[in-house]
Amino acid sequence: xxxxxxxxxxxxxxxxxxxxxxxxxxxxxxxxxxxxxxxxxxxxxxxxxxxxxxxxxxxxxxxxxxxxxxxxxxxxxxxxxxxxxxxxxxxxxxxxxxxxxxxxxxxxxxxxxxxxxxxxxxxxxxxxxxxxxxxxxxxxxxxxxxxxxxxxxxxxxxxxxxxxxxxxxxxxxxxxxxxxxxxxxxxxxxxxxxxxxxxxxxxxxxxxxxxxxxxxxxxxxxxxxxxxxxxxxxxxxxxxxxxxxxxxxxxxxxxxxxx
Length: 259
Description:
By secondary structure, the protein is an alpha+beta fold. It has a single domain, classed as Clam (outer membrane lipoprotein receptor (LolB), chain A). The chain has four helices and 13 strands. A hairpin with a 5-residue loop joins strand 9 and strand 10 (178-186).
């Protein structure tokens, strides 16, 4: 199946980083409440985790085209590993600006365009923004009003960085947890790709007070492409060694020819 890289204390804001306006003040309060709801300083201090479950992929008609066991390893801020299949033998790794795919045929570097796509999406995901990006120079947080998602009232906050990359995050008005992320990616042909990620089924981890979403759905240009249900998430299970180039023979991928 096609892999889609996932998917998850008190915040101090620098006055130079976030312009103070009523909309920004309200956005800042919503974001602060979200961090507290996720687990506060304990959540902020997490540096890696492992998530295991089942993933589904869909075609352009939103018909299921694949189902497989999946394991994700996350090590902040820029390391990611995804293992797919019954034997976890189809592997994607991103480590900074390097990436590899490993399967039964061997190991190949991920195309630079694919690594960049993954890195861009991760730079605007909920965890990266709330954990690392709020004190960057030039960022803005703007309250965008309220809405309803799946029958629940949400409050929307727009995050924009100095390069005008924007993500809109919706927070449940009652629980304060993030439930949706929307962002655009510019394509080489000057078109734009619209992306939506839905987060749900938050559960406190075993022996911890932090909350993680156990359900993720992604849509691209209005079409559902990916869905994952996590059955187990563990903190501290993603050592550095997992993000190195996998062992195995070099694989040469030959681009397919369109007839």
